[in-house]
Amino acid sequence: MTLEELKAAVSETGLPAFAAKQVARWIYVQHVCSIDEMTNISLKNREALKAHFTIGCTPYTDCQCSTDGTKKYLFPTRDGQLVESVYIPDGERATLCVSSQAGCRMGCRFCMTGRQGFQGNLSATDILNQIYSLPEQDTLTNVVFMGQGEPMDNIDEVLRATQLLTADYGYAWSPKRITVSTVGVQKGLIRFLEKSDCHLAISLHNPFPEERLEMMPAEKAYGMQEFISLLREFDWTHQRRLSFEYIVFDRLNDSPRHAKELVRLLSPLECRVNLIRFHQIPDTPYKGSSEETMIWLRDYLTQHGATTTIRASRGQDIYAACGLLHNKKTSKA
């Protein structure tokens, strides 16, 4: 609940108005698991709250640990689905990759989540629970909405979750600690740009629309020319970061022709490009490019004005790397 909703809730329960801030602090700062833990609220008032409300957190049901320290957690949702989130420690930085949907309707041919189909949107409760019930929540420095699902296809709940993460009565995070990704769902993208100051990552993967369509069926409904035009009209001079995610496939999108078109396409934008290694999934013809090719592409794009990095691959051995998340329950490592 937002602070205003908490105020209405305590009022309906007969508690004084100031109790809303107490409850907010217990939830968003102390991360309590039960109303009984709210010890600065009288026993009578705690009983009144318990009669109508619960905290709403649900523990994970499974955890796998990678040899590189990455952990993949399996969380149940309130409507009976299962979703995965990935904890990635890296020195002083610790990132959580959260899911926004069970499955995904975008159908990207190189992604296991897309191939499993769509089971439903996650509520803000289900999204935040991946953070709230994470054993390492106190170590987190960043959250990325790059897990299962298309965030802009569930924009209402994603915006609600990011609002609570950044509100002064909530987690009080800077929006610069949060990145939300999309394949370019324009209706949601417009709302996100208008309502949120969080970073934006675009899943591009090919600079030619007809070739992108072969890899990403969503290109038909959410064409790159349209969302690139939208991004060019937006003011990127403030602190928000725009990045483009680009999985590099052997002989599919890693040629000089693709590199030149990427430079042309992105040149008016203040952005960065993240090159991602492709992780093989069953029954797909795609293969990842060589390290030599990825280094060449990184250097070419950077030399021509598009700052580019190669993203480190994490958690591949537990199917936690980019494109490998799916809802199937796996056994503990």
Write structural notes for this entry.
Helices cover 32% and strands 19% of the residues. The protein has two domains: 48 residues, no CATH class; 257 residues, Aldolase class I (TIM Barrel), CATH 3.20.20.70. Helix 6 links the parallel strand 7 and strand 8. The protein has a ten-stranded mixed β-sheet with strand order 1-2-3-4-7-8-9-10-11-12. Helix 1 crosses helix 2 and helix 5 packs across helix 6. It has 333 residues and is an alpha/beta fold. The chain has eleven helices and twelve strands.
List the helices and strands and how they pair.
Blueprint: H1 3-13, H2 19-28, H3 43-50, E1 62-65, E2 71-76, E3 82-90, E4 93-97, E5 101-103, H4 112-116, E6 118-121, H5 124-132, E7 142-145, H6 155-166, E8 178-182, H7 186-195, E9 199-203, H8 209-215, H9 224-233, E10 242-248, H10 256-266, E11 272-277, H11 291-303, E12 307-310
Helix pairs in contact: 1-2, 5-6
Fill in the keyword field for this structure:
333 residues; alpha/beta; TIM Barrel; ten-stranded mixed beta sheet; two-stranded antiparallel sheet; elongated; disordered C terminus
